[in-house]
Amino acid sequence: MHRRKSGRSRLRIYLDVLEIVYREGGKVRFTKLLSESNIPYDRFLRYEDELERRGLISESRDGDARYVELTAEGAKFLEELRRMERFLRDLGLGL
């Protein structure tokens, strides 16, 4: 029997990362997002790259500061993930 490692699913991590950016007004410093997402740096970079390739976030710089921004597509995806999470929670399941 194969047991899945406990921890957050990929969708849960996407939701958490997008929620953090949204909560910060749609733009957050990279270091703050990394810290609040509670994901090891190397794994975080993979998730950030996936979200960016899918057009859900974009990265920008202001001098030495690195920012992550929620795109319009990312905001739509976040809303759908929230809806899915509520639906699953009503069924006694989780993301």
Automatic annotation (TrEMBL):
Q: Which Pfam families match?
A: HTH_45 (PF14947)
Q: Which residues form the ArnR1-like winged helix-turn-helix domain?
A: 8-86
Q: Which domain of life is it from?
A: Archaea
What name appears for this protein in its UniProt entry?
Answer: ArnR1-like winged helix-turn-helix domain-containing protein
Q: Which organism is it from?
A: Conexivisphaera calida
